[in-house]
Amino acid sequence: MRTLSYAQAIREAHAQALARDPRVFVIGQGLWSPWYAGSSLDGLDREFGRERIVDSPVSENAVTGLAVGAALAGMRPIVFHPRMDFMLLAADPIVNQAANWSYLFGGMISVPLVIRAVINRGGEQGSQHSQALHAMFMHVPGLKVVMPATPYDAKGLLVAAIEDPNPVLYIDDRWLYAQTGDVPEQAYSIPIGSAAVRRQGRDITLIGVSTMAANNLKAAAALEREGIQAEVIDLRSLKPWDRETVCASVRKTGRAVVSDPGWRTAGAASAIAAEIYDGEFHALYAPIERVTLPDAPAPSSRVEELAYYPGEREIVEAALRAMGASRSVSMRARSARSAA
Amino acid sequence: MNIDIRSSCLPPEDATAWLLERWSMMLLIRRAEEAIAAMVETAEALCPCHLSIGQEAVAAGVCAALTNSDTIWGGHRSHGHYLAKGGSLEMLFAEVLGRISGCSGGRGRSMHLASREMGILGTVPIVAGTVPLAAGAAFAARMRGGTDIAVAFFGDGAFEEGHVHESLNLAALYRLPVVFVCENNLYSSHLHWSERRVADRLDRAGEVHGVPGRRVDGNDAEAVYSAAAEGVARARRGEGPTLLECRTFRWRGHVGASWDADVGVERRGELAEWLKLDPIARTAGRLIALGVHDLEGREHAIMTRVGEALERARADELPGPDRVLQHVWAEAACGR
Ligand SMILES: Cc1ncc(C[n+]2csc(CCOP(=O)(O)OP(=O)(O)O)c2C)c(N)n1
Ligand SMILES: [Mg+2]
Fold first, then answer.
1. Residues 6+ apart with CB under 8 A from B294
2. Cβ pair B197:A294 closer than 8 A
3. A121 in Cβ contact with A298 (< 8 Å)
4. pTM surpassing 0.90?
5. What are phi and psi of A253, to 5 degrees?
6. What totals of helices (H) and strands (E) does chain A contain, helices first?
7. How far is B277 from chain A (nearest CA, A)?
8. Which domains are assigned to chain A?
C-alpha cells in the first residue's frame, strides 16, 4: 500500500470525487492559496478549474447558504472553512437550515452537503483562532459530525461524507496534517458512525477523536510500560457515534478514559461518558475519566499553550487514576511532556 | 463637552505643526512595525503579525480628528490604529512579545490590542467582527448624550461580510455618531478585489441605507484627515454616520514580514507604483516645502524612542503556566 500524509489523503478524496461526480464542487476561502488549506487542496484549482474550485469572498454566511441551496438543487458541494472559528458566522445555514431541512419537509428534500471545517490552533494565535467547536454542532439533530485522526480515515470519511444524503460536518485538524499512513489508491468509504479499535487491551478503554485519538496510542504505549493493557478506540465519528463498539470494550475492561480536543462543560467527552454510564454502569470499576481542555478560551503564549492543551501525559494520568491513584506519582515524574 | 479643536476646524490653524505631528505619528507607526517585522523574521515574535506598513496615513489622518473619549475599533491589522489613537508604544511591543505588561496583559498579542484610557476597547482578527461593535459604542454614546463618537476601521475584505452592511443600515436608522473607515488596500489576503467583486465602488456601499460615502486618497494624511474630520463633525452634530473609503496599499505580505509577496502568492506588481506614493515621504515633501529642515534629527529621535521602548518591553516578564484559567470571567465591571 502507499503512504500518504493526512493532508494528501484529504486532497486525494477531493480529487477523486471531483473526477467521478460532476455535481461535486468546492467553495470557500483560500482555495487558490497554498497556505490556507495546508496541502490539503493543493493545485485542485489547476486540475479541475476555478469554476469548480471556487475561492470565495470573506462571506461565510452567504457562501455556506449558497452551498446549502446548491445541495438542495442537486449538486454535491463541499463548503470549506479554513478555520472553524470563522464558520460560526455561518451558524444559520448550518444549524437552522441544513440540519432541519429533511425533518421540516417530511424527509422529502435532503441536503447532501459536506461542510469542512479546519481546527487550526496553537502558534500563539489566541482564542479567536484556536477553537474546536465540534461539540456545539454535535448537539444539533440532523447534522452528522466526523473527525478523522488518520490519513486512511481522512480519505474514507470524506468520501462517505460526500456520498451521504445529509449535511455532514467534516472536521480536520492542522496538527494532524503531517501524519503519514497507508492509504489505498482507489476510493473507499468508511461508514459514518463506526469507530475503530486501534489496539486491544483488557485493563482500560481509551476513547478519543481527532488529535486525542492519536495521543491515545502514545498513552497506551506508556501504560504498557507500567504493565497496563489499554484498549484504544478511535471514535472517528461523533454523530452518530459507535456506542456498540465503545460499550463492548467497557464491558470487557470496566474502566474508561474519554479524551476530547474540546472544552469540558457540555463537551463531546461529557456526552459520551454520560451514555456509557447509562448503558454500562454496572460494568464500571471506577468513575469514567475525561481528558479535555479546561473551560477557558485558548491562551496565546507558548508556556500557557503547553499548560492548556492536554496530551499523552494527561491521558496517562487519567488512566492511572482510573486504575487506582497510587501509581500516578511515578508516572508524573518521568512524564515526557512538561509545562515548565 | 470639550471637543478637540482640530476636529471642528478645517484646515488646521498651524498647518506646519499639525503636519509635523502627523508625519511623526506615521513614522512612529512605520518604525515600530519595522521593528516588529524584524522580530517576526528572527522568530522573536511568534504570534501572527499583520503589518500596516504603507497604510499609515489612514490611522494617522483619522485619529487626528478624534479625542481620547472617542472609541476606535479595529481588526487584525491594527498596530497603527492603536498607536495613532494614543496607545503606548512600549505596551504594544510588550503585547506583541507576550509580556504581562502588554496592553492586553500578554493575552492578546499582535491581533488583539486594547487601551481603555485611549478609547481602544478591542481590536480583533475576526474579519468585520468589530464593525457592529463600533455602531454599538456609537449607540451608547448617543444614549449617554455628549459628543463622543466611534470609528470602525476595517478592510475591503470585511465589506464582504453581511453584518457590515447591516451595521450601515442600523447606524443610519438610529443616526449613530459613527464613522466607518474602510481601508481599501485592494487585497484580502491573496485575492485582488477584482477576484472578489465586480464593482470597485465601496464608497457607495452606504448609499442605499442613507449613509453618505466618500472616496479618499488613503496615502495622503491631510486628505484623510479632512474627510474624517467632516464625518466626525457630522457625527458629533448628531447627523449620523459617514463612510470613508481610503484607497491604499500594504507593502508587506498579508501576514508576516515579507515584502509584497503573500505566503506563496505574488501580487500583480503594483507595489512599485505604490512605493512612489509613500504617505510618509509625501508629507515630508510638504513639510520641506513649508521650510521644515530638521526631519532627519526628528527621525533619529523617533528611532531612539522605538529602540528604547522595545528594550524595555523585552525586559518585561513573561506569563507562567498558572494563569491559564485567569480572566475567563471578569471580577468586576471594567468598561468605560
Ligand atoms: C470571519 C473571518 N473570516 C476569514 C478570516 C481570515 N482572514 C483574516 S484577514 C483576511 C483578509 C481581510 O482582508 P481585508 O478586510 O481587506 O483586510 P486587510 O488584510 O487587507 O487589511 C481574512 C480573509 C477571518 N480572520 N475572519
Ligand atoms: Mg484589504
1. none
2. no
3. yes
4. yes
5. -90, -35
6. 14, 14
7. 28
8. 2-183 (3.40.50.970), 196-339 (3.40.50.920)
